[in-house]
Specification:
With 476 residues, the protein is of the alpha/beta class. The protein folds into 2 domains: 349 residues, no CATH class; 110 residues, no CATH class. The protein contains 20 helices and 14 strands. The strands form 4 sheets. The protein has a 5-stranded parallel sheet with strand order 6-3-2-12-13. A 5-stranded antiparallel sheet has the order 10-9-8-7-11, with helices on one face. A hairpin with a 5-residue loop joins strand 4 and strand 5. The radius of gyration is 28 Å and the shape is globular. It starts with a strand and ends with a helix.
């Protein structure tokens, strides 16, 4: 049986957010050529379409769960809009291969056989190394060890070999992290109509760079341009300086003519920053809605002026589907102690302390309550009497009262600590439950990879999540 799937809405549901009307149009052949082949790409080449889009930087083994949730969100939204509008609406996933944050892409978290979060790290990038875009970072031989760690660290199941075959066919030593990510996502969801767009493809870059050049002269609130160039220090922000531009880290200087020459000869060296990227997307694709996470919903509003500069209409941001997978072992613990997700989301130790406090012997609990009440009442009476004799003594009495209350609290803490030791089973169950739902205090979907659950539950899990996302989007 697959885990219980519980939606955790980020914001208003899609039906309350009306996507832009949009006008169907043809997608440039160069853009289509940068998409992996499949049913979705065939629909792009068939004529005028609308698109629902989302995107994400590449990650090891498809990164956190929300990557899959984003992709399923655009698939469901596209189906709904196609039904409503009677035109072809294609779901598109933009693989942000220009991103250079290797520390975000080089690892994956999974649940090991004991149900504890475990981390796989492909490799570290030296601090002094150029900040290369991820489409230039090969998986390398270390990816074999990463796959072996996933294999050895997860429980055996009838689905395990299929999941490992899926990942190993994409994450090959000779593949870049971007292309491996794109291939894995494509293999998982292409048959559901998803188009996986490799934005770093040279053909796509040639179509995108004219829009980058339009935004080159814009200075953002941080004093930098929204256009990045790949230079001696890797991918680098540009800052306007006189009649030219200077890179933030390496200090290299470029005239506008230099950058125009790069756009013509080496377009892959130019890329948009996080605010300009959705603007370029709107220029390349007939996008009516963008399925966004919480961070994107915040910064997409800041990109508004760039749409005017580039001369494209802003797509409607729609909160993506969000949810949590609650396995049966975790569900049993929640039911046993009458807990909600909100209860478990608190800081480590707080819930355990509350539950243990509930089993504190009645006599001890009553005695502590009476002691606190008596301390407060008696010291208050003493403070008034002391102040009548000498006002300066009131502070001394208050200090003594606080010390007495602190000692009572310390006694309670020691009682609870002793009970925790005697209730190791309860404490352990809560700790494992928190690790499964909020690993390291962060929402499950932002940490654990889809493969962690696919190994346990197989393709039925994906179908179950897809059904929940379809209900959310109003696209049965």
């Amino acid at each position: 049986m697959i885990p219980r799937i519980v939606p955790t809405p980020l914001a208003a549901a899609p039906p309350s957010t009306r996507p832009a009307t949009g006008k169907p149009r043809r997608v440039a052949n160069e853009v289509i050529a940068a998409c992996l082949p499949g049913p979705g790409r065939d629909r792009l080449g068939a004529g005028e379409v609308l698109c629902v889009t989302t995107g994400q930087q590449p990650g090891l083994f498809t990164g956190p769960l929300y990557t899959i949730y984003k992709a399923l969100s655009v698939i469901a939204l596209a189906r709904r809009l196609e039904r409503e509008r009677g035109v072809s609406v294609v779901p598109v996933f933009w693989v942000a291969g220009d991103d250079h944050d290797f520390a975000e892409a080089n690892h994956a978290w999974f649940l090991n056989g004991g149900g504890d979060p475990a981390r796989i790290v492909l490799r570290e990038r030296p601090t002094e190394a150029p900040q290369l875009p991820l489409w230039r970072e090969l998986c390398g031989d270390g990816v074999r060890a990463s796959l072996e760690q996933l294999q050895s660290g997860t429980p055996e199941s009838e689905f395990k070999n299929a999941v490992l075959d899926w990942l190993s066919s994409a994450y090959r030593p000779d593949a870049s992290l971007s292309d491996a990510f794109a291939s894995a996502l494509h293999a998982l969801l292409a048959d559901r109509g998803l188009v996986v767009f490799r934005s770093h493809d040279p053909a796509a870059k040639r179509v995108a760079v004219p829009h980058l050049l339009k935004a080159l002269g814009v200075t953002l609130a941080d004093g930098l341009s929204p256009v990045l160039v790949e230079g001696a220090a890797g991918r680098d922000r540009l800052r306007a300086d006189g009649d030219g531009f200077v890179t933030r880290r390496s200090g290299e200087r470029f005239t506008r003519r230099d950058l125009e020459r790069l756009a013509a000869v080496e377009p892959e060296r130019l890329s948009p920053n996080v605010l300009l990227r959705p603007v370029v997307e709107a220029a390349l694709w007939p996008t009516v809605a963008y399925a966004a996470g919480p961070g994107e919903l915040e910064y997409l509003a800041e990109a508004e002026p760039l749409y005017a500069v580039v001369g494209v209409a802003r797509q409607t941001p729609v909160p993506r589907w969000s949810g949590v997978l609650i396995e049966s072992r975790v569900d049993k613990v929640l039911a046993k102690y009458g807990l909600s997700l909100e209860d478990v989301a608190g800081p480590a130790g707080a819930l355990e302390g509350r539950l243990v406090r509930e089993v504190l012997p009645g006599e001890a609990a009553d005695a502590l309550q009476r002691l606190r009440a008596d301390l407060a009442t008696d010291y208050h009476r003493l403070a008034r009497a002391a102040a009548a004799v000498d006002p300066t003594l009131e502070r001394t009495v208050e200090t003594a009262r606080n010390a007495g209350l602190a000692q009572a609290q310390e006694i309670e803490k020691k009682l609870i600590a002793s009970l925790k030791r005697k209730n190791e089973t309860l404490v352990g169950q809560i700790a494992r439950t928190r690790a499964a739902l909020f690993p390291h205090g962060v929402a499950q979907e932002r940490v654990l990879t889809y493969a962690s659950f696919a190994i346990r539950y197989g393709p039925e899990l994906l179908a179950g999540i897809e059904a929940e996302v379809a209900r959310w989007a109003g696209a049965p």
